[in-house]
Amino acid sequence: MKWTPHASTSLDDALAPWEGATSRRDFLKSSGLFVLGFGATGGAGFVASANGQRPNGDTVPYPEPDFHDLDSWLVVHEDETAVFYVGKTDGGQGTGTAIRQMMCDELDIGFDQTTLVMGRTDLTVDQGGSGGSDAIERDGAVARRVAAEARRALLELASDRLGVPVDGLNAREGVIFSNANSSKRVSYGQLVGGQRFDVILTGANVNAITGIAPIKSVQDLRLVGQSIPRYDIPAKVDGSLEWAVDVNLPGMVHARNVRPPIVGATLVAIDESSVRDLPGFIQVVNRGNYVAVVCEREEQAIEAAQKLEVEWASPEFAPFPSSENLFDYLRNTTPEPGGFARDNGDPEAAFADAETIVAAAYDVPFQGHTAIGPAHGIADPSDGQLTIYTNDMKPYSLRTGVAEFLGIPAEQVRVIWMDGPQLYGRTAADDAGFEAAFLAHELGRPVRVQWMRNEETAWDTKGPAFAFNLRGGLDPKGNVVAWDYRARVANYAHVGYNEPDTVLIAQLMGIRPERPSPGGARPPDEMYAIPNRRHETRVVRFPQAFETPLRTGNLRDPNGPQTTFAGESFIDEMAAAAKADPVEFRLRLLRGSQDDDAAFRRTRSIAVVEAAADAYGWTPRSAASNIGTSRILTGRGFAYAYRISTTIAHVVEVEVDRETGRVWVKRMVCAHDCGLVINPDGLESTIQGNLLHGISRTLFEEVQFDEEKVTSVDWRTHPTITHMDAPDQIDIVIVNGDPNPDRPDLPPYGAGEPSHRLVAAAIANGIYDATGVRLRRIPFRPEQVLDALDT
Amino acid sequence: MSEITLRVNGETHTLDVEPSTPLLYILRNDLGLRGPRFGCGLGQCGTCTVLMDGRAVRSCMRPVERVNSEVTTLEGLSTEGELHPVQQAWIDEQVPQCGYCQNGQILTAKALLDENPDPTDAEVRTGMNGVLCRCMTYYRIQAAVKRASEMMATGEAGSSERGVDR
Q1: B130 neighbourhood in chain A, CB within 8 Å
Q2: Measured between alpha carbons, how far is A616 from A727 in angstroms, rounded to an integer?
Q3: What is the mean pLDDT of chain A?
Q4: Would you call A422 and B100 a contact, using CB atoms and an 8 Å cutoff?
C-alpha cells in the first residue's frame, strides 16, 4: 500500500463542532451531517453537526450512550461512509483495525468506507475499555452482531424501496442490489445517510447485546483473515497523530508531583518560599502526603518540583524488606488468611509410593511496566464540566472513578481516550488521570501532568513477586504421579481499575479501601493429566500496604509469566529426572486423559506442542545431553501453556556466553492457536511483541529496593531489552487445532497476552540444555548466569 | 528570558525563552510539534530524538542556547508530500505498536542510513541500539531499516509486499 501524507487531523478541529453538543444522537436528530477529519488514516472520523447547538438546560452534559440503541454503535452518512463506535481502546496491537474488519464484513461495506471511534465515554458505549485480551474474543462478537443487525435493517429498507423481497437482495460494498436484476440497487447512504436506524437491540448487558440478525458464517467473511494494514500506523510514522501527551489547551498549566523520599513518610511541612520566586510558579497543591507543583510552563514545573523543600517524617518501621531479602521474606513470613488451595487425588500417598521425588524452588522478583512514556493526563474543567484526555485503557472506570473521587456527578465527566505509550495493565489504574482531574478541579483551569522517569519506574504499578516451591513424584516408568505446588505471592491490596480508593493519589491522601484486595493467583494453566495434585497459593503482606511503590497491579498477563515459569521449568526438571525428551514427556502428560472441554483445550494443546516441535525441527533427546565445549554454548528449550482458550507452545534456541554470562535468544518458534484469525499480520506483530517482552522480563527486568525506597529509577537501574538482544529469527506458526476447523461458527480467542507467559520457562529450559545448569531465579542477567555457571 | 532564534524544519522561529530550557519543551510546547516526545529526560531512551547536522540528537538534554544548527523533527522528514523512504519502510513493515518511541527509531535509522547506506545486520543493531522500545518492536524495526536501505539504494518507492525475509 502506497501511502502519502494527508492533512493532519487535529483534535481541536475534530472536537470543535462538538462543543456544546450533548451527544451524537443530537446531531443525528439535526440535519446537515458531515464527517470531519476523514483522512487516509481514518482515525478521527467524528460525526459532527454542521450547526451544533447548545443543549437545553435539561440534558446532562455527558450522558452514556445506550448500548441497546443501534445508533450508538454505527452511523451511516450520505457520502456512503460509515462510522463505528466501540467502547474499546487499542494499545497498538491492532484491535481497532481488526474490529473494523469484522464490522465491515457483517455490514457488507468496504474497509476504506469506514472509520472507527474508540474509547470516548460520551460517544462510545461502555465496553470497559481494554484488558484481558478480550477485544476480539468477546467484544468482536458484539461488534459483529451489531453490524449484522444494521445490515438487516438496511435490507428491509431496501426491500421497501426496491419492491424486492429481502431474500431476493444482496449487499456488497455499501450497496444493496436485486439478485434477479442488478440494476435495481440502492446505497446505504441513500437509505439511511444522516438518519437514525431507530433499532433497539436486546441483551441484559453490553456483552450480550444482539439484534435479530444472525452473524455470517466464517466461510462468508471476506475481510476477516486478511492482513489489512493498520489504519493508525501512517499518522504514527509521519508525526501527524495527536496523542494524549500532545493535548495543549488554552490556559493550560503544567504540574509535576513531589513523592515522599522514603516510603511511608509523613508530610510535616512545605516551604513554599523555596519555589515562590521561580519563573512561572503558580501554586503548590497539597492534600495529605500528595504534593504537586503547578507552573505556567512544563520545564518550570519540572524545576520547581525538584527545588521544592518539603519536610517529611520518617516512618517508624521499614516498609518492606530489601529486594535482596525478598524471597526469604516471602517464604518465612506468615501469609494472610485465605488464598487458593486445591487438591486432586491423594498427593501425599502418591509421594509415598513414588520412585523418584524431584524438588525445586523458583523466584520471580517484582517487575514494572516502565512505560516508554511516563504516566500523563490532561484535565479541562471549563464550563463546570470535566474533560479528561488520557491514554487510559479503561476510560469508563476513569470517568466514574474520578467522579466519585471528586464528588461530582459522572454525567459532568467525559473521558477521551487517545493514543499513548503501551498499556499492558498500567493505565487500568490511571494515576496521572486522577491527578490531572484533581488539580484541574482545584485550580479551575486546564492542567497537564506527566510523571518523570524516576517516578514512573519507581512508582508505577508492579507485577507481583513470587516464591515457589515445587515437588514432583515419578513412578518407575517416569510417569508423573504426584505434583505439589506451593506459591507465595506479594500482591496484597492489588490495585483495581481506576478505583477512587486505590489509585496512588488517593492512597497518598490517606484514603484506604474498605476491603483491600486479598490478592492471589491461579496456578499454572496446563492440561496435563497428573492424578494426584496439590496447588496452594498464599499471599504475603508487607508492613507498608498502602502509599507504596510496590503496589501491585495488572501487568501483561497478570501472574501468568511467573506461574508458568515455575510450572514449565519444573516439568522440564521432571523430564530430565525421567531422562525423557521434553516434548515427548509433555505429550505423554497431555495424552494421559481423553477429557476435553468446550474449547477443546486438550486437543488444541497437543496440536500446538506438535506444531512448535515440527516447525523447529525438534529431534528427540533428553535435555543437557549434548553440551558443547566452546565459549558459546547453544541449547534448545521448550514450554507449553494455555491462557483462557488460547493454546501456545514455544521452542527457543539460546546461546550462552560462558565468559560474559550473556544469554541471547537467537531463534524463537511459537505455535499459537487462538482460533479464528482476523488479521494475520496484526496477530504476528502482537505475538512478536509478547515474545520480546517475555525475553525482556526473563533476562533483564527486576525492580530493586532497599528498606526505604525503590532504587530502580531509570533505564540503567531497571534495564530492558534492546536492539542487541532481539532474536535473529522468529517463526510463528498459526495453528487451528479445533477438531472441526471448518465449522462456520469457529470462534476467535484472545492473543494479546497468551504467548507472553511461557517465554521465561522456555529460556530457562534452553539454558539448561545448553549448559546443564538450571536457573531458577529471574532475571538471568549476565552476572547471575556467571554465578550459576561457576557453582 | 531572552530572545532565541531557531531554525526548525525549514522555518525560522524567534522565541522569548529561558536559554537553558531543553529543546524538547520548546519544540513541543512552543512550536506545537508532536514527533519528539518526553521519555526519560536523561538521554537514555531516544524518544525525544531530533536531527541536527544529520546526526540524531536527544532534545531532552540539549539546552536551546546550545542549538547551533537547523533542527529536523519527524514532521520535517517528508519532502513535498512524499514520505521519506524510512517512513515508508516503517509503514510497509507495519512496525509500530503503540508508536510512542518510533520518532526516535525512525530518525535514528535515517541518520544511520545517511552515514552507512548499506548496513549489515550487526551494524543495524549497534546503530539503533540506544533507542528503546517498550512494545519491543525491535524485530520489525530492524527489518524496516534493511528495507529502507534497499529502497534508498534503488530509488524505489515502497510497496505492501514484504520484501525482507523475517
Answers
A1: 722
A2: 15
A3: 92
A4: yes
Structure confidence by residue, pLDDT tens digits, A368-403: 999 999 999 999 999 899 999 999 999 999 999 999
Report whether A482 contacts A355 (CB < 8 A).
no
Task: Tell me which residue range forms the domain holding B38.
Answer: 2-76
Domain contains B67: yes
ipTM comes to 0.95
Asked if residue B49 and residue B114 are part of one domain, the reply reads: no
Check whether residue B143 and residue B92 sit in a common domain.
yes
- pLDDT recorded at residue B157: 64
Q: What is the DSSP string of A218-261?
A: GGG-SSTTS-PPPTTHHHHHSS-PPPGGG---TT-EEEEEE--S
Looking at the domain assignment, is residue B49 inside a domain? yes
What number does CATH give the domain A11-233? 3.30.365.10
- Look at domain A560-619+631-790 and name its CATH class: alpha beta
**Boundary-marking domain end, from B25, B42, B76:** B76
Chain A residues with CB under 8 Å of B98 CB are: 91-92, 372, 419-423
- Is-contact A76 A424, C-beta < 8 A? no
Which of B121, B139, B162 to mutate: most A Cβ within 10 Å?
B139
Give the pLDDT confidence score for residue B159 in this predicted structure.
52
Q: Is B148 part of any domain?
A: yes
Tell me, yes or no, whether B14 and B45 share the same domain. yes
pLDDT in tens, A34-46: 333 222 222 233 3
* pTM for the model: 0.94
DSSP letter assigned to residue A424: T
Is B157 in a helix, a strand, or coil?
coil
CB pairs under 8 A between A and B: 195
DSSP A534: E
Weakest-pLDDT range from A140-144, A411-415, A422-426, B131-135: A422-426
Residue B165 placed within a domain: no
- The enclosing domain of B108 has a CATH number of 1.10.150.120
Closest chain B C-alpha to A94 CA, distance in angstroms: 8
Q: In A100-210, where do the E strands start and end?
A: 114-118, 169-172, 175-178, 185-187
Task: Report the number of distinct structural domains present in chain B.
Answer: 2
